[in-house]
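Bug #77: duplicate submission created two jobs. Keeping one. Sequence:
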Amino acid sequence: MVDENRIEGTAKNIGGKAQEAVGNVTGDSKTQAEGSARQVEGKAQDTLGKAKDAAGDVADKARDVASTAADKARDAAGNVADKARDVAGNAADKARDVAGQVREVATDAADTATSELARLRAQVEELMRDRVKPALTDAANIAGDYAQQARGLISDQAQAATTRVREQPLISVAVVAAVAFVIGRLTADRY
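Kept job's structure:
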């Protein structure tokens, strides 16, 4: 039976590839990076599942070998005690060998996961350096330009208002009085 980690890992890997493709199409580096991260996570989880599957297979093999050894020992128990000890010794050696293989598979899986994570970290750092930081710098420059334009427009409008008040002071006083009267009427009705 296939370990759940393999199924989930494969699903995450495929989902990550799709997410990275969407990021590539839309030019969204964050989506690309998240897709890459999901792929690595999926590969690591799949590798863990493979290791568990291998460990299960190894355990099954060890049980089979031990069972065979026990059957042979029972059959030959009466007259062949030395042979039974030899078979049991062989089974123990095989179990130790299988355990060593399991350790190797687990170590390889851990090494693979570590190297995949390191590769992903490097990709994320590269994306940050090559795409995200320049985009943020461009956005900050554009925002600064707009702020400078707004300051200039406000300054020009304030100067125009000051000039109009100086040219037509009576009209300006009348407009201010009318606005004050309307505000006073609006607030007086509420309270």
